[in-house]
Amino acid sequence: MKNNIKIILTGILFVSLAFSGGLNNAEKKIQKYVDTHTEEAIGLVEKVVNINSGTLNIDGNKTVGKVFQAELDQLGFNTYWVTYPETIKRSGHLFAEMRGGKGKKIVMVGHLDTVFEPDSPFQKFTRDGNTAYGPGVADMKAGDVSMIYAMKALDNVGVLKDLNLTLVFIGDEEKTGGPPSIVRKELIEAGKWANIGLGFEGAHGLNTGTVARRSSSSWMLTTTGIQGHSSQIFKEKLGYGAIFEAARIVNAFREELVGEEYLSFNPGTIVGGTDVDYDPVTARGTTFGKTNVVSQSVTVHGGIRTISTEQLDKAMVNMKDIASQNLPGTTAKIQFRTSYPPMAPTKENYALLDKFESVNIDLGYGQLEPLDPGKRGAADISFVAPHVDASLAGMGPDGFGEHSENESLDLTSFPKTTARAAILIYRLTR
Questions:
Q1: Can you give the pLDDT at residue 21?
Q2: What global pTM score does this model have?
């Protein structure tokens, strides 16, 4: 009986090994290259983290981009900048192309900018053992460096110059400078050219894969009321005032829309009173009002995220309907601006995840599960996803506390996710 069990277990092991295949010699060399150059790569992360590249810091973004451009030039990429009119007030984007003619065409997406402008107190890279801290260290300068070192690893095994690749480093991911039809035109064209899209923002551990990301849109609600003495509020002549109308609408959003899977919305700024001044670009405003004066104006600026365009369309219809049911003596208007489309969870993305999982298993990291899209925000991979055969996001190293002064990077994840990405690209291009 024991011998039979031993035979069965041996057979299972043999089938498992045969299924996983293991790493071939080239893939082992890719892994070794990444491992032996990890400290060098971390040094590059430190260098670019110490260069402020807040979205509005055009010079800083270009400086970071030029560091990456020099690395890619040395590898034989054709690099160039896409820039826009001064009215856009952004740095533009760095593109790097390899046209070797072999295998699937792959576009990889990163971004240069961070949420930390030059006036932020959070400016420098620091390291404590296997954890690094700094502005943009996780979101997403480590992911950018990971893209570059994946390319170096592929070059080390002599295959890079045979491949069809486009690397894109966006200069205004955190706060776009114009409509997508203008500032994402070239990225969309890259998506139309490619077969596969890979986004290099951070992974959520070694056992999840990102097959979907939600959209990011904004909404602007403005309400008006009739100014007058507060002793007459709620009466026919004055009605309820702009603040009560705004409060009604925002609360109705909460009551009627909360609970739908993958739909989230947030009023981020509200200013109201007698006189209101609000700048949506800087998200700053001023207001004046008195406790004994019925409010005349309110502006609410918020965001909304969805898993599909259909879900977004439905939510906008519902929100417009709520805004139209005005309290006496008030008016309301809501407008929407779509910044990022969703990256939908297609069956092709799941098939690509299976291939990614085989790499993960062969590296000894285990199986992959699709990451809950509710745990991710929007990203530029979503402009690529509708045009390619399949896409994955979350290809970069693990980070924590993004968009906060606690932003950090798990340095032990860097060689693992970088080698994993490089090997996936290698297999996709065979």
A1: 54
A2: 0.84
Q: Choose the final residue of a domain: 317, 340, 363.
A: 340
Main-chain dihedrals φ then ψ at residue 228, nearest 5 degrees: 180, 180
Residue of 187, 183, 152 whose CA lies nearest to 167? 187
Query: Are 204 and 296 found together in one domain?
Result: no
What single string gives the DSSP state of each residue in 267-325? EEEEEEESEEEEETTTTEEEEE--TTB---EEEEEEEEE-SSHHHHHHHHHHHHHHHHS
**C-alpha triplet 411, 51, 181: angle, nearest 5°:** 95
Comparing 339 with 182, the larger pLDDT belongs to: 182
Q: Is the dihedral of CA 79, 85, 88, 90 positive or negative?
A: positive
CATH code: domain of residue 44: 3.40.630.10
Identify whether residues 385 and 284 lie together within a single domain. Answer: no
* Residue 9 lies inside a defined structural domain of this protein: no
pLDDT band at 265 (very low <50, low <70, confident <90, very high): very high
Instruction: Read off the pLDDT of residues 273-288 as tens digits, 9 standing for 90 and up.
Output: 999 999 997 889 999 9
CATH number assigned to the domain comprising residue 306: 3.30.70.360
- Give CA–CA dist 107/90, Å, rounded: 22
Range of the domain at 150: 17-213+343-428
Whether 368 and 353 have beta carbons less than 8 Å apart is answered as yes
The C-alpha atoms of residue 430 and residue 1 are separated, in whole angstroms, by 45
What phi and psi, each to the nearest 5 degrees, are found at residue 99?
-125, 70
Q: How many CA atoms lie within 13 A of 73 on its CB side?
A: 10
Of 325, 340, 355, the one marking the end of a domain is: 340
Q: What is the pLDDT of residues 211-246, one digit of tens each?
A: 999 999 999 999 999 999 999 999 999 999 999 999
